[in-house]
Amino acid sequence: MKEASVSDDNNMIDLIISYKFNDIYYSLNYISDNYQVIHISNKHEVLRFIDENNMHNIVSKNRFPFVQVNKLLREKKFNVDTVYLSNLELTISQYIISYINPRQIVIVEDGHYNYHYNFIENNLKQKFKNVITHRDHKWFKNKVNKVQIFMPDKVHESFKSFDVDKLILKPIEDIPAHLIQKLDNKKIFIGQPLSQPRKKDNKQEKENYERIVNNIIKKYEIDYYIEHRYSKGENIINKYDFYQHGYTLEMIAPHIKNLTIYTFGSSLIISLSGYEHIDCFIVSHSQIYSGSSFLTEVCTNELLIEDEK
């Protein structure tokens, strides 16, 4: 792999490596005007809040889209000062960083990952990374200049060797009025990809999730169910395809007067818990695994649900 060299010239850019909208939104709070984005997802996504000329969309079902990424890096020859990203451990991220060799790295908020770190790799995968990047893990860690997250005082031990600061968001001013009006004074259930069966032929798991969520929506008169972007075809009432608009709830939050959030364990709780006009509820159900217990420390409103068949 032929890599770029670190340069001191004035043509250097900041580069965002993103897998979700908020990777870009959080990074834009700190970067210069001269930036580019490599956005990797399993479908083409339109983001309304940035200039499309700055976007390079990599659409792939493959978790490691080597061919597309390598072609882009060779064509663009990015001269990068700072890379912004939410997860430094991903193979494709490490490949890009190794190739462009930036001066430094800034890690931005990634939800559970920053507070409940459980990233474990087998030796084979780590060796694979070393082969394609020609770097060891220490090289990447030494590039990290700062970590910007919502709750620095609760950061996991694995991040404490870095300079950790509080992530302060700048509101986006030109949010469409109809989006604000649609969400204001509403109750929303935030979905997670919990309905996706761990076995391809296990439909019962998906149907059970849908039944439980539909019962909760009816009982508590919840206005909208926002499906997780990695969920597929959930049969749930009041579904609202919110992300089609190219924004996230974190972008809308400063502009609404009142909102109530329900979720089994979405890390959205972390980013929205600081707003006084937003009430959050962690929903607990014996048949649904909600994930990290850390969220119950962030959100003290817990809703215990008994099974209703």
Characteristics:
disordered N terminus; globular; five-stranded parallel beta sheet; about 30% helix; about 300 residues; seven-stranded parallel beta sheet; alpha/beta
Can you characterise this structure?
The protein has 309 residues and is of the alpha/beta class. The chain is 28% helix and 20% strand. It has helices at 21-27, 66-76, 91-100, 112-115, 123-133, 137-143, 177-183, 203-219, 249-252, 268-272, 294-298; strands at residues 13-18, 35-41, 55-59, 80-85, 104-108, 144-149, 164-166, 186-190, 224-226, 259-263, 278-285, 302-305. The strands form two sheets. It has a seven-stranded parallel sheet with strand order 3-2-1-4-5-6-7, sandwiched between helices. Helix 2 runs parallel beside helix 3 (91-100). The protein is globular, with a radius of gyration of 20 Å.
Q: Quick summary of this structure?
A:
With 309 residues, this protein is of the alpha/beta class. Helices cover 28% and strands 20% of the residues. The protein has a 7-stranded parallel β-sheet, sandwiched between helices.
